[in-house]
């Protein structure tokens, strides 16, 4: 296991290491690169209908502690090996958190949890965690919030999300156009799917826009279009949207788009957020309802779960001692319930043939 990031690698008052220097300082191994590529390839194959397995993106709402994240990853890697015949499992490794007003913005922004906001240290620590998780054989998944972040972390990710608040952002749509991994766009906070549909369409197109290069210099970015954008149903102010009808409608919206091969399974269901009211108990119910007694919907790519070592959440303040393995942001499932759900998904995926379109579950 790697040593912790040394204090001297923390950024100075303002200057940050360039993406090239950060990647060189915390470089992934050959195995890491293989796991990243395998994860991207398998998720793309599932989107195109060439791989029948369910995708399960599962892990902490946000990572705030390396030790607990790696303990979780070791447990999940063992479970992923046991269920690999029916599931593709990627670990949720979220280092940036959008805030409705204010609050802790994630490990990347404030890795020491004290308000010091040593972003340079956060970038290197995030790379270190990603490299270690990948070395266990687990592909990594994360939300892209700041458009600069992928220059530092993108080579270690197999899947990325564009959140409900940023799916409508032109900057993030253009950013997704240049990402080398499948990207899930969440429906808007109001619940409308059209925002995410338009984002998928925009991301399929090439763009030229401002960004930075590997040396950290402002540069024109050439983004050639991402054919693997898909829709993440996370509910909204209008209510949950995880039923068969919602999956079918979302799939139709994506398939109507031009500019890329047809995605056979373009829908990922976020079992948290407005689909469960951020209630871990309801999150488990949503997860079970999505696969239902009839088996997974033919357009369903998989599910997204928020889970940590222990159930619930805790509040962050710079002067507070935190509980180990408990979420610092949204409430999470505990490990025992997570393991039970994943085994249930594996059994449902393996034992039930995918239903034909039009045979919808409404649970």
Structure description:
- This protein has 363 residues and is α/β, with parallel strands linked by helices.
- The protein is 34% helix and 14% strand.
- The protein is built from 10 helices and 10 strands.
- It has helices at 19-25, 30-47, 66-82, 119-135, 149-153, 170-177, 194-203, 244-255, 280-291, 335-351; strands at 54-59, 87-92, 140-143, 159-162, 183-186, 207-212, 218-223, 229-233, 267-270, 300-306.
- Strands 1-2-3-4-5-8-9-10 form an 8-stranded parallel β-barrel, surrounded by 8 helices.
Terminal residue distance: 44 Å
In terms of DSSP E residues, the strand content is 5-15%
Globular, elongated, flat, extended or rod-shaped: what is the shape?
globular
What would you call the structural class? Answer: alpha/beta
How many helices?
10
Helical proportion?
A: 25-40%
Q: In terms of per-residue confidence, which ranges show pLDDT below 50 for 5 or more consecutive residues?
A: 7-11, 355-363
């Amino acid at each position: 296991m790697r040593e912790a990031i040394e204090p001297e690698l923390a950024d100075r008052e303002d200057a940050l290491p360039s993406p090239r220097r950060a990647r060189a300082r915390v470089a992934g191994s050959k195995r890491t690169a293989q796991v990243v590529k395998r994860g991207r390839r398998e998720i793309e194959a599932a989107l195109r209908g060439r791989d029948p397995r369910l995708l399960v993106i599962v892990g902490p709402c946000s990572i705030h502690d390396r030790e607990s994240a790696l303990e979780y990853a070791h447990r999940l890697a063992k479970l992923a090996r046991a269920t690999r015949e029916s599931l593709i499992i990627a670990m949720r490794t979220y280092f940036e958190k959008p805030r409705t007003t204010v609050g802790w913005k994630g490990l990347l922004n404030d890795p020491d949890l004290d308000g010091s906001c040593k972003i340079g240290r956060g970038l290197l620590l995030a790379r270190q965690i990603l490299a270690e998780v990948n070395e266990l054989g687990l592909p990594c998944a994360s939300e892209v919030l700041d458009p600069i972040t992928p220059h530092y972390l993108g080579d270690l990710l197999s899947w990325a999300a564009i959140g409900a608040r940023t799916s409508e952002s032109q900057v993030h749509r253009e950013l997704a156009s240049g990402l080398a991994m499948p990207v899930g766009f969440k429906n808007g906070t109001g619940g409308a799917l059209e925002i995410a549909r338009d984002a998928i369409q925009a991301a399929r197109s090439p763009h030229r826009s401002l960004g930075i290069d590997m040396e950290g210099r402002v540069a024109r970015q050439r983004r050639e279009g991402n054919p693997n954008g898909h829709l993440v149903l996370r509910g909204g102010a209008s209510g949950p949207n995880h039923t068969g009808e919602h999956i079918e409608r979302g799939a139709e919206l994506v398939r109507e788009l031009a500019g890329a091969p047809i995605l056979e399974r373009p829908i990922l269901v976020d079992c948290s957020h407005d689909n469960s009211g951020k209630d871990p108990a309801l999150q488990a119910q949503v997860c079970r309802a999505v696969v239902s007694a009839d088996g997974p919907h033919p357009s369903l790519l998989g599910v997204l779960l928020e889970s940590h070592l222990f159930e619930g959440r805790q509040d962050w303040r710079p002067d507070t001692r935190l509980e180990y393995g408990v979420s610092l942001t949204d409430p999470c499932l505990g490990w025992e319930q997570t393991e039970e759900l994943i085994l249930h998904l594996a059994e449902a995926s393996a034992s039930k043939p995918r239903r034909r379109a039009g045979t919808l579950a409404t649970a």
